[in-house]
Every structure is written in structure tokens, then in C-alpha cells.
Amino acid sequence: MPPETSAAPTRLLDVRGIRKVYASGGFLAPTRRVVAAEGVSFGLDRGEAVALVGESGSGKSTLARILLRLEPPDAGQILLDGEDVLAREPRRASLGYRGRVQMVFQDPFGSLNPVHTVAHHLVRPLLRHGKGLNPAKDVGAHLAGPLVLHQRATPQSVRARALDLLRTVGLEPAEDFIDRHPYELSGGQRQRVAIARALAVDPDLLVADEPTSMLDVSIRMGVLNLLLQLKKERRLGILLITHDLASARYLADRILVLYRGRVVEDGPSAAVVESPAHPYTRALLASIADSSPRHAGGGKPVESHADSTEVACPFAARCPNVHDVCLKIDPQPREFDGRTVRCHLYPEGAPSPRS
Ligand SMILES: Nc1ncnc2c1ncn2[C@@H]1O[C@H](COP(=O)(O)OP(=O)(O)OP(=O)(O)O)[C@@H](O)[C@H]1O
Ligand SMILES: [Mg+2]
Predict the structure, then answer these.
(1) What CATH fold (topology level) applies to the domain 9-90+204-216+235-355?
(2) What is the mean pLDDT of residues 76-97?
(3) CB-CB contact of 250 with 273 (8 Å)
(4) Each residue's pLDDT tens digit, 291-305
(5) Domain residue spans in the chain?
(6) Which one of 48, 107, 139, 212 has the fewest beta carbons within 10 angstroms of its own beta carbon?
(7) Which atom of ligand 1 approaches the CA of 20 most closely?
(8) Which fold has domain 108-202?
(9) What pTM, to 2 d.p., does this model score?
């Protein structure tokens, strides 16, 4: 056995072979199996942003829910700093995990409670997990239980931390925002409060599901820049979920393109956007150039998912480059030109499309 020190450094997040199949249908309706995730594997380091991109129904939020431990996968592993998260006892695991993996939702209004002030939204997570206020977290014993209050966590010190958080997310002067209610804020300001709340527990990983899609175009950039700054300055790992390749390119180091629950392309953001390999990625990019929704994703809208017994490439019916083999064999992921592509156009050892 080689010594442990020679092993590759542990990644913050290592997702391996996630599979999730839903049975849908209902009374008198035939049951249909929807493959929402199939063989999804990727890694994410501290200070790295990875974008999951795909059209509606491709399985983005399913993966987010699985990563947040809101529902279990049918198969696969999630390693956080090398520790198998799903193997842990659920209550213990979820308490500690919540302190390390946080979520920002699409709708900041829906995710903030309208009857409570900004202060209320920040104080609760600060008391639960906040570093510097709760010594249990600082010594790594934060699995112990909720609301472990340190004697020195005075109302003043908690409020001072909440004000700091507001400054961190660019809501200044913080004193003007802390006692307001969500309805007294703009959409962009509300999303900043939601981000501040996520940061209150000092997480290692932020999962952001369409964080800017409900915001006015003019303020989207501000929120993306805030995430970029948190990634650089706090070395926060970010999983950005979006249908928008332009935001993904702007924020993320790597882009994973999802189609029907499968990662069909995974590579550095610039490479994926500037020279997309998979025909589906090309179709998504073309749909940015032609913003008509009819063209999103390359033509037909996606309604039905193929059954898990399918043997064809799931994209074959929509693919402009379809070959006989595509109708017979579901392509497996292949290393190709610095990325991983799931497509028969790129057999093992094929030359780069640019060479
Ligand atoms: N609880 C569920 N029961 C049955 N099917 C589900 C369930 N949750 C999701 N699905 C199906 O799984 C597939 C993936 O859904 P998911 O919400 O992950 O897509 P998405 O990429 O987040 O889409 P959007 O961009 O619209 O948010 C869809 O076909 C959806 O209908
Ligand atoms: Mg979704």
C-alpha cells in the first residue's frame, strides 16, 4: 500500500455514480419511469465553481436535492472531504452537513419569511452554527445538536455578526437593512439576504439553484459578481445550477451539461462554451444565439423521458449528427480533448475536432 501522503488530495465534494429514477403516473394513468439522474459523477474543490447546465427537466434540481440530502439517490455516493455522507446516520449527518453545505434558491421572496426581519433570518443560523459564536462548531463538535449557545454570544455580538454578513453581501449601510422585512427590499436585495443567511453558518459549499433567473437582468450581474467574490475571497465551493450558459461561463470554472439526467459534457467553462463537443451542448449554445424558446435545446420540447430500459442514446431523436450506433447503444462517458463527453461522435482515442 502506498503511504497516505502520496494519494491525490481529497476533494471538497466528490459525487460518484448518482442515479435517481422517479415513478410517475397516477390513478388510472400508466406508470412511467423518469430517469432524473443516471451515472452522475463530478468533483468540486474549495474555491471552485462548477455549473450544472441543462434545459427544464434535465435533472438539475433533483441533483441539488440529493446533494442537500433532502432526498436519497437510488445509487451512488457523495463524499465530502472524503467522508461518505450518505453512509452516516441521518440525524447526525444532516446536522453537521447543514453547517457545511448551504442552499440558495431561485425565489428569494419564497425562501424568506415575510413576517420576519432580515435580522431574524440571520440570527437563527448564526446561533445554530455560527463560527466564533458557538465554540462547539469551532472544535468540530457541531454535530452535537441545535442551538448550542455560547455564554459569550450576547445579543450585541450576534447583531454585530449579522451586520458583518450584510456588509459581506454588499447591503450597505448594513444598519439600514437589518431591521427591514423582505417586502421592503428589492428582488436583488432579497437574494443578497438569502446569500447572507447561507453564509451565516460559514459553509464550505453553496448550492445555488437558478439564483439569478427571477431577478431583473440589470441586477443579475451584481449577484453573480458577489458569488464570484465569495468564491475567491472565502474559497467557497459553488455549485451553480442554471439553464443559462452565459452565467455558467461567467461564474464557473467548469461546466457540466445535463441531458435527461446524464452529464453529456464536462469540461473547463471556456472550452465547453467556445468549442462545444456534444451536439446537445451545441444546440444549447445555438439557443442563446436565437433566444426564441422554440429553439431552446435544439428543437422539440422535452416532455417525456425515455424509460430506463432504453438502449439508444437519449439525445438520438433530436440529434442532427445521429448515426446507426446511436440508436442501438447508449454512449458511455469518454475522456476527450480535456473534457468528458458522452457521445458516439467521440470514440476512445478520436482526434480533437479542432485538430
Ligand atoms: N418527486 C418527483 N416525482 C416524479 N418525478 C419527478 C419528481 N421530481 C422530479 N421529477 C422529474 O424528474 C425530472 C427532472 O426534474 P428536475 O426538477 O430535477 O429538473 P430541472 O432540471 O431542475 O428542471 P427546471 O429547469 O425546470 O427546474 C423531470 O422530468 C421531473 O418531472
Ligand atoms: Mg429545477
Answers:
(1) Rossmann fold (3.40.50)
(2) 82
(3) no
(4) 444 443 433 333 344
(5) 9-90+204-216+235-355, 108-202
(6) 139
(7) 12
(8) Rossmann fold (3.40.50)
(9) 0.86
